[in-house]
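hey so i finally got around to running both of the ones u sent me last week. sorry it took forever, my laptop kept dying halfway thru and i had to restart like 3 times lol. anyway pasting them below in the order u listed, first the sequence line then the structure token line for each. didnt double check formatting much so if smth looks off just lmk and ill redo it

first one:
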Amino acid sequence: MHFSVPAPLSTERLAAPRPPAPASSTGMRIAEAQAAYSPTTTRYLAACTSGLPTIDTVRALRADAEIWGRGDASPAHYQGDIDRARALYAGLVGVGADRVAIGSQASVMAAVLAAAVPARREVVCVDGDFSSMVFPFLQQEHRGVTVRHVPVDQLASSLTERTWLVAFSLVQSATGEIADAAAVRSAAARVGAFTLCDTTQAIGWLPVDAGDFDATICHAYKWLGAPRGAAFLTVLPGLAEVVRPVQAGWFAGDEPWSSCYGPAMNLATDARRFDVSPAWPAWVGARVALEFVARWDPAAVYAHDTGLGNALCEGLGLPQGNQAIVTWADPSGADLARLTAAGITASGRAGRARVGFHLWNTAADVAAVLTALPR
């Protein structure tokens, strides 16, 4: 077998991700974090597909199911979890809680922003980006909105005065490539465009400051280990002023329990007006998961995850890019089949084999991948 990386995937043309601050003496260490997961978890290299819950997250979800089963669950029962999760996420990405909206899916949040694009203006997306960051904008073409797709390493240089929004994933799902966010922000500022960054494949291992972008989206079920159905949208005031909360429901009200019936509509004045009525049990798990994340040492997590990624790249003869997601060409799926046969949980995307390293992984997982693949 011959491992190679096509030219478009070269990491040499991409700016290196901003490293986190030096390791803190107070943050949770890797060994302590690993102990929070079930000891039965082995050879799971798929955080980029779906993260793993901690033992405490599973325990909280089971307890909530029991509460529901007894008939003791109520909206008030869940409001505390939602408020706590919102505040924890805000702290994680460096913005105020008043700039954070909650939802259930990335595509729903992107659709709200897509509906705000003026007719005859342009949205620039990454060629091959995850569909949740593309399809909502394509659905606006009937209004004269143009969607232009460019390679991720040409994103900054492709923006023009006609561009109203540049929408991109910070870390590409299919390849693990990391966009040069600083260059994109600078180019967007020059042409007067807004920025929307999907951080679903980044937050949890790669440092992200949501205040660097006009809007960010994160579905927390991957690197943050929350249940699927807990997602976040951050919106800065400049963009929030021109976006209509077209999905507004009772939970977007200034006082939600006064917003259950029409005809009067009094929406929240902060980012909560973009809230979607929550899938309640998911937020129990999200709150516990984010409490765990808040105890991490970000520098240690970044070093751990990218260190394993670099070690695998070295073993496979691939360029080391300080990435937690490692992919390589596998058009027939043969390598993915080999990994699966070896008891390794991995994934295949866009004709590539894909693995992701996170807290529960160790050097033994790297060795297992190398052993499973012929070289």
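and the second one:
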Amino acid sequence: MAERVGVKRVQDWTEGLFARLAFAFFRLLPLDAASALGGMLARGVGPLLGISKRARINLRRAIPDLSEPEIARIVRGMWDNLGRVVAEYPHLGEFKLYDSGGRVTVEGFREIVDARGPKTRFIFFSAHFGNWEIATLAATQAGLKVIEIYRAANNPFIDEIINAARGVVGSELVPKGSVAARRAIGALAAGKHICMLVDQKMNDGIAVPFFGRDAMTAPALARLALRYDCVVLPCRVERIAGATFRFVADPPIALPRTGDAQADVKQLMTAVNAAVEGWVRQRPEQWFWLHHRWPD
């Protein structure tokens, strides 16, 4: 056991060192060049890796009418997007969402937020789609105080690097788990808002349809929204070309109030999964198909 722990520690440290060097290199490049290079490297190598088999399996099951060339194109595009996201991390501070002529076109967000009263509490949700880190920037750069609930990377050294890059976002970072639940309740009670990604599998979650198949889904968003009467706002960041994006806030999802708490949670999470599915069907190459999203 001790030997395995030691090997894992060395592996984590090695991966962390490589990641730190890569981040430092991409930071030296202009944003456009970093994004282009990251995409080129990832789309050249990624499809050849064994892990891409998971993406192909997910695509065949989720969208069965795709041809093999279409699947290959989507997988290649997924890797391109992922490589760009990694290369863009050191440059997150350069994204100014509300500056005219900037890299991100914002649609719907300010109109929806500004139309609500000052005591309104929001839960903004997104997915691993486009460059998902920009979604929280939309909230913090609009002057909102938010906590960002995230899934920590398996490698603690890489997790530290990513969180350091996220430091420019201006949100409070809270890793998923029991601490996140308590912190989220405290934040809402203090009038803050929550940002979260909702597209990862949670083994002890609830079964909710996603692409026509049950997917184990974290119910925390629905439980918090129903308990604290939050506005649930779907937010997606679509990559348009290179390092330019379109950030779209869709209309809020209505909170079900049937009197059956479990049924309301499932109904709300079904609507959340449906929103994410709609984004992915429009631009499947921009979603992270490597997730073990379904139990099989």
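quick thing i noticed on the 2nd:
Residues 2-286 form one domain.
anyway thats it, ttyl
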